[in-house]
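In the design runs reported in the main text, the only information available to the sequence generator was the tokenized backbone. The following block is the verbatim input for one such run; it is reproduced so that readers can re-run the procedure and compare outputs position by position.
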């Protein structure tokens, strides 16, 4: 349901016809707050999987940017939340991951995706944000590289360039990422990734996803944050971007969009 919005019964009925699908409603602002990982009675992904994506996020994106029969790809699908939501909405779906936890996930390193150029209608990816979570023992896991190293962004850029290659022109992708504050050091992971992504994609919008269920969400940590003058992470970014019709030249690829504004 939409949050903090009181509407009349008449408006509600109009909304239910136009924007409510199976008791779920499309988000209308850039602040999305889902208290639970799942919706409905059937599981979407596995809420025990480290770093699992809230299923509502993918549901909202597929409603807006895809139609029935479209091909959706998740290059780092983990417990398969994208697979479950896409299938339920009658989209075709391919989910890859290095860490295969169910039979319909294809083992693949997302720095090379085995799909043809311009063949995919929508891509969702919730990548590692740093080396803060252990996903598997796979040595190729990008989640083994600290976001404080440039290598982390170099490797994510390889994934971004593959996404740009397989996506059809004018089609969208959604990428979830978060900043890091650890050992008294803040790293603006979102901004640093965005600089890489804008070489390949045009911005559509940036959504803030409220963070829930973090290990630091305890009174002890809230008090530490006040006492020692730092902030606990309250949100993740969801970058929504589109593959442009005109592909940027080699020279433009070296010059991020932000530089052109100067
Ligand atoms: C935040 S989790 C994704 C969670 C998933 N969206 C879900 O709902 O379960 C990030 C995933 O990236 C995968 N990963 C990390 N490096 C990878 C790589 N090079 N190629 C493919 N998958 C990778 C990890 O195994 C992990 O499952």
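Verbatim output:
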């Amino acid at each position: 349901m939409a949050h903090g919005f009181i509407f009349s019964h008449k408006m509600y009925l109009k909304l239910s016809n136009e924007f409510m699908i199976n008791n779920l409603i499309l988000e209308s602002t850039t602040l999305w707050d889902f208290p639970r990982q799942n919706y409905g009675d059937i599981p979407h992904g596995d809420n025990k999987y480290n770093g699992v994506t809230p299923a509502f996020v993918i549901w909202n994106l597929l409603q807006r940017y895809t139609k029935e029969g479209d091909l959706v790809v998740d290059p780092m699908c983990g417990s398969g939340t994208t697979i479950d939501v896409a299938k339920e909405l009658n989209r075709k779906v391919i989910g890859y991951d290095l860490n295969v936890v169910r039979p319909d996930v294809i083992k693949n390193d997302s720095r090379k995706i085995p799909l043809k150029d311009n063949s995919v209608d929508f891509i969702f990816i919730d990548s590692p944000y740093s080396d803060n979570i252990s996903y598997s023992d796979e040595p190729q896991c990008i989640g083994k590289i600290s976001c404080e190293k440039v290598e982390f962004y170099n490797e994510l850029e390889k994934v971004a360039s593959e996404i740009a290659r397989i996506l059809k022109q004018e089609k969208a992708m959604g990428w979830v990422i978060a900043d890091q504050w650890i050992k008294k050091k803040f790293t603006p992971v979102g901004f640093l990734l965005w600089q890489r992504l804008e070489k390949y994609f045009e911005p559509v919008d940036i959504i803030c996803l409220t963070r829930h269920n973090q290990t630091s969400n305890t009174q002890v940590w809230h008090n530490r944050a006040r006492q020692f003058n730092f902030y606990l992470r309250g949100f993740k970014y969801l970058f929504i971007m589109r593959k442009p019709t005109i592909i940027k030249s080699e020279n433009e690829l070296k010059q991020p969009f932000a530089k052109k504004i100067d």
